[in-house]
Amino acid sequence: MGYRYCVFGAGRQGTAVIYDLVKFCEADWVVVYEPSDRSRRLAHEKLNSLLEDDYDKVLWVSTLDDRRTPKIDWKSFDVMISCAPWKENLGLTEFAVRWNTPFCDLGGHPETVARQENVITDTAIVPDCGLSPGISNILAVHLAKLGYDNIQVRCGGIPMGNTSVGEFNQGLCYRLTFDPTGLISEYSGRVPIIISGELKYIESLSTIELYKDGRYECAPTSNNSPQVVQTLLDLGVKYYNYMTIRHKGHWNLVKGWKAAGFLSGNKKADAYLVEVLGENPLLKYDPEKHVDKVLLNISGTRGENSLKQTGGFDFLVLADPETKFSAMEQMTSWGITMVAHYMATRNGTPNKFATPERFVSGDWILEGLNKRLPS
What we know:
Domain Saccharopine dehydrogenase-like C-terminal: 130-372
Low-confidence stretches: none
CATH superfamily of the largest domain: Dihydrodipicolinate Reductase, domain 2
InterPro entries: Sacchrp_dh-like_C (IPR032095)
Distance between the termini: 28 Å
Order of helices and strands: EHEHEEHEHEHEHEEEEHEHHEEHH
CATH class of the largest domain: Alpha Beta
Number of domains: 2
Structural class: alpha/beta
Protein name: Saccharopine dehydrogenase-like C-terminal domain-containing protein
Largest sheet: 6 strands, parallel
Radius of gyration: 20 Å
Organism: marine sediment metagenome
Number of helices: 11
Helix content: 25-40%
């Protein structure tokens, strides 16, 4: 017996999610809502080629108006999945609640997640299910449940190749594999951390540290969920922090944006920056030309002095040369599909709002990654 999934959004990230649901998540049927003709066409062409006979499991709709989709029983889905930009997630949450269908999304925007938490319902609402927040949070909590009380997470999707000044937009050393609105969101605001068993906040980009023998740099960003910090506190974690990995030089340039008045809550200024980034051809990721990688490290310590132990997980994922999915698209899609699959199997679907680290098994995520990663 397979499962019925509904996916909202078929941009590059949504296309990767649809592919993974069919290949790894026992999908009998995947109904995809995508209002854009162009996005539907591009996703159709790619998935039809990749999935071959299994593409018959995918059905497209361009509206959520049930009067215009009489063949779709919106109550019949095991899980609804949002791959839309975070600005759409509250409305899509309300749509899922209307049909009493478990819902999950990629999250990454704490204010929207807080509004979702206030929705009164007995329907599962599960935001923050991507890479980070998502996989990284579930595995951080997994370490905490094993007794690690000093945990740090380092995560980033970055382009591969020559990173000399000029190749990636005059030193930015980056290519956009997702909506620049999400990038601006995570580079703004405050970042929750744990120091001596207490919740603290620091500003995004407030410090820069070297990573991997100085080959990369990390800075704190606000995309990591404050929800996970509270869960870690409840589990007795004394120290926790999260940072995003980039090529050297990236953060100093971005801090210049902040000094110029961007990334500081000015919606008009940030909207202008999103437009500039989105239109910059040097930042565009072309899967036919470019290759990226994702670095994810979750590490922890437990015990003291001579009894101190270290543990954790370290992943390196590369763009797939066969499917042409970027590393970031793959890891982000795996985050939400593994959670959706877990919910569909009724392993532990909550009956209200919950971020995934509260109920998804770390072993389930590790097993899922092992299935997907090259041996």
